[in-house]
Amino acid sequence: MSLNKAVLDIRNRQRVKPSPIDVPAATWTGKDVIESGEIDTITIIFKTSGCWWGKAGGCTMCGYVYDSAQDVPSDDDLMAQLEKAMRKASDFDRFMVKIFTSGSFLDTKEIPIEVRHRILEELDGDERIVKVLAETRPEFVTEENVKDCVSVLKNTDFEVAMGLETSSDVIRKQSINKGFTFQSFVDAAIAARENGATVKSYLMLKPLFLSEKEALEDIVQTVRDAAEYTDTFSINLCNVQRGTYVEYLWDRKQYRPPWLWSIVDILQRTKKEFPDMIITSDPVGAGSKRGPHNCRECSHAVADAIRLFSLTQDLSCFEHLSCGCKDLWEQVLELEDHTFGSPILD
Amino acid sequence: MSLNKAVLDIRNRQRVKPSPIDVPAATWTGKDVIESGEIDTITIIFKTSGCWWGKAGGCTMCGYVYDSAQDVPSDDDLMAQLEKAMRKASDFDRFMVKIFTSGSFLDTKEIPIEVRHRILEELDGDERIVKVLAETRPEFVTEENVKDCVSVLKNTDFEVAMGLETSSDVIRKQSINKGFTFQSFVDAAIAARENGATVKSYLMLKPLFLSEKEALEDIVQTVRDAAEYTDTFSINLCNVQRGTYVEYLWDRKQYRPPWLWSIVDILQRTKKEFPDMIITSDPVGAGSKRGPHNCRECSHAVADAIRLFSLTQDLSCFEHLSCGCKDLWEQVLELEDHTFGSPILD
Amino acid sequence: MTRYFEVQQRDGAARIGKFLLKEDIRTPYILDTRSLGNPESPIIDGGSLWKYSGFEEAQEHLREIRQKAGEDALIILPHQDLTPEAPRNVTIKLAEKAEGMEDSGATGAIYIAGQQVKEHDLYVMEGAGCFENNARTFLSVLLEMKKDIAPDTAIYAPNIAIPENLAMLIYLGIDVFDNTKAIIAGHNDIYLTTAGQFYLDSLAELPCRCSACSSTDLTSLRGMDKKSRAVILEKHNINAMEAEAALVRERIRAGTLREYIEGQCRVHTWLTALMRLTDSEYDFVESQNAIARNNTLVATCGESQNRAEIVRFAKRIQERYTPPESDILLLLPCSARKPYSTSNSHWKFINALGKSRKFVHEVIITSPLGIVPRELELTYPAAHYDTTVTGYWDAEEREWVASCLEDYLTKHKYTSIVAHVEDAYRVICEMVAEKLGIDIIYTSLGNVSSPESLKNLSKTVSELCTGRKRSHEQTQKDLMKAVADYQFGKGSGDILVPQGSTVKGPFPKHQIFVGKKQLITLIPQYGTLAITIEGAKALLGKGRYTVKIDDFVPRGSLLAPGVVDADPLIRPNDEVIICGEKAIAVGRANMNGDEMKRSIRGVAVDLRHVKKIE
Amino acid sequence: MTRYFEVQQRDGAARIGKFLLKEDIRTPYILDTRSLGNPESPIIDGGSLWKYSGFEEAQEHLREIRQKAGEDALIILPHQDLTPEAPRNVTIKLAEKAEGMEDSGATGAIYIAGQQVKEHDLYVMEGAGCFENNARTFLSVLLEMKKDIAPDTAIYAPNIAIPENLAMLIYLGIDVFDNTKAIIAGHNDIYLTTAGQFYLDSLAELPCRCSACSSTDLTSLRGMDKKSRAVILEKHNINAMEAEAALVRERIRAGTLREYIEGQCRVHTWLTALMRLTDSEYDFVESQNAIARNNTLVATCGESQNRAEIVRFAKRIQERYTPPESDILLLLPCSARKPYSTSNSHWKFINALGKSRKFVHEVIITSPLGIVPRELELTYPAAHYDTTVTGYWDAEEREWVASCLEDYLTKHKYTSIVAHVEDAYRVICEMVAEKLGIDIIYTSLGNVSSPESLKNLSKTVSELCTGRKRSHEQTQKDLMKAVADYQFGKGSGDILVPQGSTVKGPFPKHQIFVGKKQLITLIPQYGTLAITIEGAKALLGKGRYTVKIDDFVPRGSLLAPGVVDADPLIRPNDEVIICGEKAIAVGRANMNGDEMKRSIRGVAVDLRHVKKIE
After folding, report:
1. Could you tell me which of C535, C537, C538, C543 has the C-alpha nearest to residue C566?
2. Per-residue pLDDT tens for B196-216?
3. Strand D360-366's sheet: what is its strand order?
4. Which domain holds residue C338?
5. How distant is the Cα of B305 from the closest Cα of chain C, in angstroms?
6. Which residues form the signal peptide (chains A, B) (predicted)?
7. Hey, which CATH number is domain B3-338, 3.40.50.800, 3.40.50.2300, 3.20.20.70, 3.40.720.10?
8. Which of these, D200, D388, D389, lies nearest to D300 by C-alpha position?
9. Between residues 227 and 256 of chain D, which touch chain C (CB distance below 8 Å)?
10. C289 domain-assigned
11. What are the E-state strand segments in D383-431?
12. Same domain for D342 and D458?
């Protein structure tokens, strides 16, 4: 059985509850950092027909595929989702919009080109919006598509966000099952930047099968490899999402999410190496069994430091962190390299 | 149940094979030490109607009761026994005769007075015989009896041998079940000495229930207590005889025969304290499980040293004895005092 | 007067205690035999009476020791020991002589069966060392001893302990041991471990990492002279025993000694025999076993099913339990997850029953517990056991479970019996059905959780549903009644869950009220009831589980000397009612009823509510 | 090429082995996980392939390690591990990639079921750490592994060993472990013992006397900072594991690991399950079990009766044994003393039979062995077992013994069957008699040894004595024939004890001669036969228990590489016949037949007699 088949089998076993298709999958506000500093953000997860790659199996850790609509949403449904989402931004003076589709915003099978135009036009028309970020797989980041977006967003910056995950083609293929190569990311990044967009790269800390140290070093290496093609890094910490292959293995005690000490180490090392690069990480689910975690006592404090660093880019955030469990993490770093196929669990 | 009853019960369970009554129970030759030095000996165990005390139960360690005749031997039977026994002495030039009956030679129920006279007369008539020793319980060592013997043994020394075992009335009664007191021994000894006989006292090392050290100290104390009433001490080392109460307990792992190191210690200490006293010990069955023993490696050498000392009375016999097990014996001396009713087994 | 020893914690017959002497000594304790002869020691051997010709001498000797040692040293009174097979009345006579000794301060004495027992702080099991490998005799002597002496007296078994048997001896309720055998083994070149003994000759390496063994290696050890080697071996042997004693103490504290014993007893056939024979002394073992505990009962061997907790559970179902009124009985298999109703499989069964569930009474079949009526699935140990599962039930298991089911079906009649079971469960149902000549309807079609099986269960039961049905509240009350009967005896449920009472609180935290007065609460952790003062008053008439005290008002905890009388049915951790002229109270028993009555030290009951009687 | 590992001693599947690397390493071995990353170590992890984009890079990395390490270090080839539930063919693909690595010197590799297995010196059980608590999967993976790889290859189970499970894992035939879990536990404040694990928090004292624990106490330990505490806990945990490993090695050397396991497995339900499930893999277990051993088989638990030695004994009686010609069967109870005929009770039975004994065939009923015909009472394990005796036989025991008796009585017919038995023995006879509808005459009157019972036995048998009777010599021959059949298969007795042969030597040291040529001798210690060259020649035609070698003349011992073929029925300690073009020889097998064929290191047979073929 191939990895993709294994992922697909699990997908097929999930029961997804139907939900209204004129409401976005999720919307929330938050803060992010752009070149000019901290800024309010609104994140919209569009409910589309879904990620083409996810429908064919998809990534081992991705549970977002279940956010897609059961029926194909009409153009008006999609616009209604936008409208409902934007209500949350009513209090903002100046903000950034982050668009996700649980797939690719630039895939016209998910967002028809007319809808794309209507969305971007509407956002461009709102003067409070200074930047629009849209996530997409790299195969859709063509010269044509970037130009198309930039041309609509006359007064608004445009950022293309891609889930590179890792610069290792071996890991991306055999652990994540992501279905593209580092080269395709590079091509996409160049296409974006040469046509007026900036690039944000999402990385994935600790995909399946890797030891804690391998995972850690892989991200450090990835930052080195991808730095010249990206404007911002956002490092995702693998968490165990429902209906994923990661969950399947986690349930069977064959996976442990990353330690927060690992991301702290990564942020410290990469920021020192690339002081001008914006490198962020949002420790979603930190401290829970399914999320990245240290011990019970320090997880929340460490996660807060990571969030603060992500906004301030100030390494002093990490200065006073310490906990007895750091010693354990150091052991895990050393020993998990030699467990030959079983994780070190808590 | 009383101790005597317990002993008797065991007696009653034994099956004794019938044997001819005109043959002594046993006869053997050996060497002993008398005032004038080493001398050949012949030991005769008469088969009589048996020890009156033994028939009523008797001593806990005594298996000699089974040497008695099933039917009462006639006077001629007894004389035939003597005759058969004396054949073994045919080669001797000068020797001593030791008479045992597994009871009391002076008990006329065992040896009718006429037989006593015939025996002593015959022995007295043999010029090679310099001394006659006869074993008896003290109740028979009356002035009258001693005089009677001495008067027959005109040219021959006469020694009364008594199994005192211990000077402790507690131990003699509650462990050995011997049925007389130290005072009765003293009275008998005086009666013997005042009427021309010498006295030999048999002691018993390690009766039932005593720890190794208690047993050892009891013998040392007994030598002190009885020295003034005796001419010779012979210390018997308890061995496990068939059909005895000692055997019953030994079978159930509730008795261990004495260590040979204990008798070595006793001989050294008592000989130093009473340099002129003849103190001997014949380590019968030494080295076997049923007999007194150290470890397998040294038992025979130590037993030989004891035998040599018994003949020479020379303490240098013990000088070069040593073995790893002596250390174990020292532990036993210390620890067996606190085992509260169970012996320290090998 | 047990003024110098106190039992602090119990795990079955095993216990953690403390001697309050010149040094505090924690038991189970391995005393250094050599120290017994030293008058500076906290525990001293008064010596042997064999060497004294008169009583006076011995008494004088004792006075001397006491003077040197002080009142707060425990002196084992001078004794004249015989071995076990010595005539019994000689032994008793000698013991009486020893008991004539006069002394103040902490004392120990030799125990002789049949002798008048005094209130010493410690009793010595005479000749214990002779009972090694003789399980039957050892146990009978010990049980006689336990019956005679006060439960708060320490028991000392001399010259028997080695690492391999220590846990079992402690399990049986012995408090004090010595290192005689460990020392002697060391001087015999014998290397002791909890897994058995080795001749030093036969070893290829030292199978230990204790301080003695770490100080050397096998080659050096073999090269030493006998005496130096013995010092190290002795140290190792004592280390091995001390480590085992510490482990066992931890096991007692954790309440898991039985689980340890079930493995450790395999080291020697006589230790296994001891465990089996002890299990067959049900009254002795059961009386010491806590009614409920908060740790898992782990059943890994054939003997697990003879544990007092398991046999008691089965017996109480036979003797105390009354099923709710129902015409249909549904037999179900157990589940790994406890309580059963929280398991995936039971959740499916319950779903399949749907509305029919009101008509059926559910009873779960399980090994090693036997049968568990649904009402008692929370009650210890029904929700607290874990067992090795391989799918194979051996014949002894099948016979035991079948005997439980057979007893149940003989006592309680139903219009229809449905069994939704497979494999061994079904074999058992068939065995019983055949024996009793009754019909059982089997609804499972190869796999109890398959959609087809569940559908068949649903259909079968719904077709049978014509008899009596129970409301939701009635089901809750049935649960509370069943637990009350289980805990306090038959009929208690009717008193504590009377007509007209109401149930509050979500499952499983039910409470029973009569008007505004609360009577009981279910404690989910143990599946037992806690009682209020009102509940206590209601139950008082029955006289069960009651501790009588004098005319004082207890606070915090009730100490043993304050107990006038106690129900002998009371077990450790039982909910008890305390009543005296001045107060009524409820609390959790810390010892059994008999121990409460016979002890003069220790906490008898931890009180929860106390109400003064004005 | 297993040039660097050799198995030296076996106890069932467990084994003592040796790595011949830069340091000699004795197995079962606990490697320090941390040393795996150090190129100076004797065993090195070649690292993960996850980090290499290309095969060349990895190959280069391996070359570098090998250069630093030298040929006499074992390198586990670079590997790209997945966890066990990863898709199997992805795993195999990655494993094949890893197997493409080129290297000289000692090597290890990851084992993947279904992958082509090479001749590495060590195979790693991938994802072993995930199988904890999952007995069924662990065992099936291990058995698959054992089937695929050469028997003289070491097996390494990473990230799973802790003190409590080590003995069981070694029992299953695993050679190498690591200290990962012990270290991690230490840094998690978890204190490991062979009796289970404790949170440091929950302890009241340290239940150990190892060098680490002796260096501190609980209070100081709790007062330390996390890191210093972890150092000590880690040290303790590793000590506990090392001590257990040493103990288990000693147990293997003593041949008593099974007895240890039967207790130790109670620490955790999954370990008990492992033992039970392994027992049910009879072919695997039996094939590794020595045919006879000189130590006592101690049976203390229900599972003892499933031991391969016991089941094999019963099976061989069913399949290989032919009773002597007799019309009367006498069933007798077993005795504690072995062989039975030397016991007090059997001596009484034999005396009571007197001259009638010539007419009867005696079969002894016993648990857990089942039945033992008198002729086989000397044969391992009939004269070599000890068991816990309480008088109670549980249902599983009764069923097992009854099944053995039933099989026997179904196969073999007698004119009369007399049973001189009581209690459980009688219950079993009655069960079988009823089932088979046969009559059994019971002669015991309450106590088999009482004069009345013996008299009744005597009388009953003498009245029946009218059929065939056997001479004294015939009885001796029957014994020798029965052992021959037991040992070499049905029909061997007729070859080795032919018509016209004579018996020499007193019981039990019988020898069989044909004229002046000796064929066999009974070895009383094991109750098995030793064979002469003459005996070997006689048996050669049957082809059983034969090891084929090439055209050389072996001396002293036959090494595995010299074996061309070997009877798969050969078990360790079996008497075997070696034949080749140049020589015929006899000796004692050191390994089983399969292992002889598949091994390239180690002694296959210890030779006793060798005869050149001119």
Report:
1. C543
2. 999 999 999 999 999 999 999
3. D370-373, D360-366, D328-333, D416-419, D441-442
4. 297-464
5. 23
6. none
7. 3.20.20.70
8. D388
9. 239-240, 242-243, 246-247, 249-251, 253-254, 256
10. no
11. 385-387, 416-419
12. yes
